[in-house]
Amino acid sequence: MSEALVNKITERWRPRIEEELDAAFPAEQHPHLNNAIRYHLATGGKRIRPVMCLLTCEQLGGEAERAVPFAVAAEILHNMFLLHDDVEDGDTVRRDRPTVWAEYGVANAVNCGDYMLARAYRVLADAYPGNASVFDLFTETLERTIEGQALDINLRGPEHLSIEEYVRITELKTGYYLGFTMTGGAIIAGAARDVRSNLARLGRLLGPAFQIRDDIIDLTEGKGRGGMLGCDIREGKPSMLLASALAHCTLEEQSRLVGIMRKPREETTKDDVEWVIDLFNKYDALGFAQRYADDLIDQALHITDHVPFKDPEVIRSFFRHLSRRKA
């Protein structure tokens, strides 16, 4: 039920979002930038962030159309992070197509990401001149997300990773820039400060839940990497699954696990990945991770009781979908 409702809401606004994304990067302008950016945007994506922005604005009594520029700027920011993330992680495939750096080169990918950030700010400046709240929110989100990415990059193959450490990383890396779309929609709807504060709290719960589900998808469905499972293992990335396994495995298992996670990506074998997956299954790391994500969603659902949504169940359906999606 929730998935069908989420799909219906998404398809309602997707054409408008795609129209504005297309306008932000015209095919006839700046070919050394826009060709690569349009290539990346054409690979698709769920457009969850802009839809959450428009849905929140409407649910709080605002005009969704007025929030379209913020929603589009948020989606541009998201895709900028993806371009840079693929370079940083060395990923050559995203959404089952070559990544921008693999297709156009590292220098072009980095430059295109920088340009996307500039265009996101231009979209905001044209739509909301003088609205300090909008720019403060967008800039804080950018800062916190980069801080989270720095922690993620510099914590590859750790000997110790607590649940709390991992959740802190995901709050920064994912929570701010998932939740800020709702806060932006609320600002444009004219919502009170306490409403916006509650939405920020929601984001800090939804972000880790969303990222934990990503961790699980990487081992079960694959994350659009040409059918490959276990990309996070090959990259040595911190995950809820890794944190859970490290908390329960033997010292001998810990030594082998850390050794595999610290291997260069190209040296990590299929047998290495399968051994790690078997270890995760031995200690029910996937089950623990899903239960943790579900608990975060339950906490978020309780906060919705304190936000004056016109139809809270629509919002709740969106939240439930985030922790159970398969892609």
Structure characterization notes:
This protein is mainly alpha-helical and 327 residues long. It has a single domain (2-322), classed as Farnesyl Diphosphate Synthase, CATH 1.10.600.10. Helices cover 75% and strands 1% of the residues. It has 15 helices and two strands. The protein has helices spanning 2-24, 31-41, 48-59, 64-89, 100-104, 106-127, 132-153, 163-189, 193-220, 231-235, 240-248, 251-261, 270-282, 285-303, 312-322, and strands spanning 93-94, 97-98. Strands 1-2 form a two-stranded antiparallel sheet. Strand 1 (93-94) and strand 2 (97-98) form a beta hairpin. The longest helix is centred in the middle third of the chain and has 28 residues, at 193-220. The radius of gyration is 20 Å and the shape is globular. The relative contact order is 0.12.
Provide the fold topology.
Blueprint: H1 2-24, H2 31-41, H3 48-59, H4 64-89, E1 93-94, E2 97-98, H5 100-104, H6 106-127, H7 132-153, H8 163-189, H9 193-220, H10 231-235, H11 240-248, H12 251-261, H13 270-282, H14 285-303, H15 312-322
Antiparallel strand pairs: 1-2
Helix pairs in contact: 1-3, 1-4, 1-15, 2-6, 3-4, 3-8, 4-6, 4-7, 4-8, 7-8, 8-9, 9-14, 11-14, 14-15
How helix-rich are the residues, as a percent range? over 70%
Oligomer: single chain
What is the tally of helical segments?
A: 15
Query: What is the assigned CATH homologous superfamily?
Result: Farnesyl Diphosphate Synthase
